[in-house]
Amino acid sequence: MNKLGKNIKFLCDDLFEGRRDSVLIYGTQPDATTVLKGVYNSAKNKSGFLCSWHNADKIKKTMDFFKPILRLKYGAKYAALEQKKWFKELAAQQDNNDVFQIASLCAQEPKSNDAQKRKLPLIFIDGIEKLLFKIDYGNLAAQSVKKLLTANFFEQPLPNGFGNCLRGYLHQTSKGVFYCAVHDYNSTEYNATLGNYSYLFYSENFRTHEIIK
């Protein structure tokens, strides 16, 4: 087993033995992505999980993120959900707190009669800092982005609410677990989100795993 394989095995052993921490994987690219993908490939074959893969670079709007999770959870019933008026109205809102409430629909339902809904969502995000920044701050002009990194909390623009909904409806309730690769912890995207204590879904919400080679 190579060194990246040992990192994958370590994370899988923890996960399959019942540890439910959300994890940030740090390491040079593409190593972090390789390890994340390895955990995903192993976990998706386990019957108790709903494993969805999300490439931050390919996500253009909020529903690009939520749809894969919902399709896994609702299966054949997803098409009917998508046609409901209230769901259409939520999904049409691309950058505000309304659409972010869909995170609540992604959550595990341990007492459901539907076996699929009882499964735990494992949400794998490749480049999480890019995704959080894109959806929570993608509307900001360059001058406002600079204010995100100021030490004065009251000068910082408020996030749209995406990260907070992920934290509140999935992470804090333990009804969804995040496994994520960080692409660049020196970037503006990282420092404005995961590296920012004022951002509610910051790095201390996660267990960190530094790739050892």
Strand and helix layout:
Blueprint: H1 3-16, E1 23-26, H2 31-43, E2 49-55, H3 62-74, H4 78-83, H5 85-91, H6 97-100, H7 103-106, E3 120-126, H8 128-137, H9 142-148, H10 162-171, E4 177-181, H11 188-192, E5 207-210
Parallel strand pairs: 1-4, 1-5, 2-3, 3-4
Helix pairs in contact: 1-2
Tell me what you see in this structure.
With about 210 residues, the protein is α/β, with parallel strands linked by helices. It has a single domain, classed as P-loop containing nucleotide triphosphate hydrolases (Rossmann fold, 3-Layer(aba) Sandwich), CATH 3.40.50.300. The chain is built from eleven helices and five strands; from the N terminus they run H-E-H-E-H-H-H-H-H-E-H-H-H-E-H-E. The protein has helices spanning about 5-15, 30-45, 60-75, 80-85, 85-90, 95-100, 105, 130-135, 140-150, 160-170, 190, and strands at about 25, 50-55, 120-125, 175-180, 205-210. Strands 2-3-4-1-5 form a five-stranded parallel sheet, sandwiched between helices. Helix 1 crosses helix 2. The longest helix is centred in the N-terminal third of the chain and has 14 residues, at about 5-15. It starts with a helix and ends with a strand. The model has no long low-confidence stretch (mean pLDDT about 95).
